[in-house]
Amino acid sequence: MSPDAIVIGAGHNGLVAAARLGLAGRRVLVLEAQDAPGGLLGEAGGMRVAAMPTGLDPEVARALALHRHGLRPGRPLATIALGGNAPVRIEGGSVRGIDAAAAAAFADLHRRLGRHAAALAPMMAKVPPRLRDGGWGDLMTLARMGLGVRMLGRAQMRELLRVLLSNVWDLLDDEIGDGPLSGALAMEATLGGAMGPRSPGTVLPLLYRFAGRPRTMPEGGAGAIVAALVKAVEATGGQVRTGARVAGVLTGDDRVAGVRLEGGEEIRAPLVVSNAHPRATLLDLLGVRHLDAEDARRARLMATEGMVARLDLTLGAAPGVPGAGAPDLCDRMVIAPDMKMLETAFNAAKYKGIPERPGLECHWDAGASRLAVSAQFVPCGVKGGWSAETRDRLLSNVVSAIDDALPGTAAKVTGVTLATPADIEARFALPGGHWHHGEFRVDQMLMLRPFAGAAQYRMPVAGLYLCGAGAHPGGDVTGLPGWNAAGAALKDGRRA
Fold it and tell me: Computed from CA positions of residues 333, 339, 344, 350, in that sequence, does the dihedral angle turn out positive or negative?
């Protein structure tokens, strides 16, 4: 096939971009370095990273007709907060396992945060406005964003502006106090990133997740999302080629001309869409000679240190949840007894140490007799380097914390796989091993993602676009970065 569009990387955003381009009549070739598609949703070399995907954006799923390709949506997952005297079950704005006064305070907070998130939600799905050298369209987008916030009313608008840049510790401690409920919400605000509950700006990522879709586990898990997206690409005549690592982006006449593979093969195409990390795309694949000094500096300085390790614990029998039924195992379990514990773990990671008690997100896969665990606040560059000793220490700390919350689990462990942030970085060429291709913080979100001047998917060389989690609106498994990037490329193609 002679393509007229190349997508670098068969992660979910790359596949979404490829499918949208294919629907528009482009001949698309997707090049994936690993031996199977999926990126962080796949199981490259036996490494599973995304154990608990959020649902794809419904509009994206509908537009790509993923139901015709076998994708069956699952139910929204409740969050079970463990580590206290009894499990606390959180489902939307309702909570069970705490006293009536605390439940009412949480419901009120959830309602207010929901209103704030709803004002921000339209910004998540749209191409962000250009802040530098913007035109009338960008000004109109900014005006609509401002109007959405203003429509909250004066009191709620002031409240949103007050909390937007504050830290999640102060917000939750003031409203509902510390404990397993606050610990679970603080995990929601910090999971995947390198900020603790007391870090400024951690309310914004919490609102981001409130503005997104509920966490769901589709039938068949993360692999079902990948399989449906691959079929959607192939249904348009596109091709997904695995074991094809891109080493560079070709240029000519001040625009993209194709890509060069690691073995030297060159594939020509006038459009290249990269699902790789922004830094890797710009500095490694494109090259600094095509960037102005400021863009090169911003790409180098992106905050992108991951702090999540992934473990799969194979168990001889299902773990028991004290005071909860078996169905709770299939929901999302969070082991974060309070925000103080999370802040202590973050402080250890900040200085390159392995926390004694990392924050944990767990999900029981009954079909595989496997407990999937994400350990938050594990540094990529641990002091002294990753070794058998440091890996064993991390594993021991994680299993001990799980055993405290789910007694008897440690004795049931029959097998373990562990992927540190450094392992994820090496396997997926992902700087810092950061799930979201860059920190969710104020200067790397919305119209500043991945950095000022590069927030509309268009890269400095004509014909090159960014479609991965490093582009707006960022990580999780919505597919919106890929959808929007393909839309930007098609819009530019119509103008040409």
Answer: positive
